[in-house]
Amino acid sequence: QYLSLCFSTNSLFGMGNPLLDISAVVDKDFLDKYTLKPNDQILAEDKHKALFEEIVKKFNVEYHAGGATQNSIKIAQWMIQKPHNVGTFFGCIGKDKFGEILKQKAVEAHIDAHYYEQEEEPTGSCAACITGDNRSLVANLAAANCYKKDKHLDLEENWKLVEKAKVYYIAGFFLTVSLESILKVAKHASENNKLFCLNLSAPFICQFFKDNLMQVMPYVDVLFGNETEAATFAEEQDFETEDIKEIAKKAQALPKVNTKRQRIVVLTQGKDETTMAHEGKVETFPVLKIDPKDMVDTNGAGDAFVGGFLSELVQEKPLDQCVRAAHYAANVIIRRAGCTFPEKPDFN
Q: Which cofactors are required for activity (predicted)?
């Protein structure tokens, strides 16, 4: 009975920006031309419009199905393997070639993707500009920005899939798209004592969308972030500390609606140890070692970390096992281009 409960279809729900990643190794001149930091995530502005054409013309590009939340749900499904469709994903795409690719890739990854398809905007894309072991992401949301609660999430057949889930994950990036959709899902999780997970996702989310972020925070059971996001979050919240353990502790102690569960805060630091705050204590976990020459690119490493974590969380495994799976998945992804993975995991 327990096993069948753990492994039911649609038990992990994700909602976010489905994007097609356009990935290439670029040079410093290219970054400078578009005033990009080597390791950052930003939304495309008018000055970046030409970047998407130039990267395709000038460099050797690869196309991968992307979008942070969708990546994490796919990785979780890959770690679980069977049954298929443990992971559900909602997001908005256009009726075009890129949209068809995303649909096909979702089927191949065995996730149950239900896209809201509209014709006003083309399917979103994300330029992943790789230099060394850094990646600068420029997202042109386009269709992804058109997700509508009333047109998709509220529909009875879609909401039923939300209700089937017991673990929910939304990347902070979606805070720029549909706060009302996030709140509806977060409140459902909280009222039913299920697990709602959120990612800080980028410094600009912590900074410019902090009001939206803090409206959702009281419903967050598991908060993910990396060291840069954590530092910006701490600054914006007046935590008055730069110490990652202290930041984790203070984020853990922020107000929470469902008091039956204490918040868990998980902060990564690239090749340095991962920090986890829960139940008033802070633990650290070393990451798996990797030879720099085996690293292909770090794009998708954070998404893979979350995916690994969620794959164990949805099976109700202990937290240290969740972190181990997270480190394993991230270690696999950085050996490959984009957020792609071998046929089967080798994790136990």
A: Mg(2+)
CA distances in angstroms from 277 to 106, 174, 233, listed in the order given: 33, 24, 16
- Cβ(270)–Cβ(331) below 8 Å: no
Residue from 162, 145, 134 nearest 28 by CA = 134
- The residues annotated with a catalytic role in the active site are 303
Look up tokens 């099976």; give the residue.
Answer: 315
How much of the chain is helix, strand and coil, in % rounded to 5? Answer: 45, 25, 35
Q: What is the pLDDT of residues 208-255, one digit of tens each?
A: 999 999 999 999 999 999 999 999 999 999 999 999 999 999 999 999
Q: Is 339 helix (H, G, I), strand (E, B) or coil?
A: coil
Q: Rounded to a whole number, what is the distance in angstroms from the first to the last CA of the chain?
A: 22
* Distance separating alpha carbons of residues 175 and 204, to the nearest angstrom: 11
Half-sphere exposure of 276 (CA within 13 A, CB side): 21
**pLDDT tens, position by position, 247-257:** 999 999 999 99
Single-letter code of the amino acid located at 79: M
Two tokens, residue 157: 């057949």
User: Residue 253 to residues 192, 291, 302: CA-CA distances in angstroms?
Assistant: 21, 37, 24
Supply angle C-alpha 263, 266, 270, rounded to 5. Answer: 170
Strands 167-171 vs 222-226: parallel, antiparallel or unpaired:
unpaired
What's the residue count for the chain?
Answer: 348
Radius of gyration of the chain (CA): 19
pLDDT of residue 2: 45
C-beta atoms surrounding 329 within 10 Å = 28
